Amino acid sequence: MHRFPQDQAVGYLGKKDLLGHVLNSLQANEFLRLQHRYLDLRSEVLQRNLKFRSAFILTIRQFLCLSYGKQLDLELSFANAADIMRVVEDLLLHVWPLVRDIRKDHFLLQTPFPKMTYSAAISQFGSDKPDIRFPFRFCEPSRNGSVGFKIPSATVSLKQLIPLSFLPS
């Protein structure tokens, strides 16, 4: 048993949650996690993310070191767009097994990757970063004929673009 001087107060926490356990729970707010990030980094989720990030970047570096004349920032001499796309496709094919193992994902990459022009992306999806997982596309009713409802004739006569998206029934 330890002896304490008479003028010192001794307190016992009793049964309290340790801060590390609170940070691991989903109830911890962002401010608390940032204030004690040295403890938050010990959580299983963040440890897994850090290990994945490290392994991912290491795999990219190993690929680029084995490929003569390439660096992590892909400085390629006398390269055109097709050369850069080919190198990035090869890089992602090389890294993909690591991603699949960590994420338990069974999706296989197929090369060459599908490509789309800027004008096609804007006209079909209304965005230069389309999400092609969904089958929804814009179309112009004036070019596609009847759409099942009347379009104001003034709009058609002005040849204005009317983007429509049809949802499958």
From TrEMBL:
Q: Which UniProt keywords apply?
A: Aminoacyl-tRNA synthetase, ATP-binding, Ligase, Nucleotide-binding, Protein biosynthesis
Q: What InterPro entries does the annotation carry?
A: Aa-tRNA-synt_II, aa-tRNA-synth_II/BPL/LPL
The question of whether Nucleotide-binding is a record keyword is answered with yes
- This chain belongs to the protein called Aminoacyl-tRNA synthetase class II (D/K/N) domain-containing protein
**Origin organism of this chain?**
Paragonimus westermani
Give the lineage.
Eukaryota, Metazoa, Spiralia, Lophotrochozoa, Platyhelminthes
Domain of life the protein comes from: Eukaryota
Q: Which GO terms describe its molecular function?
A: aspartate-tRNA ligase activity; ATP binding
For biological process, the GO terms are: aspartyl-tRNA aminoacylation
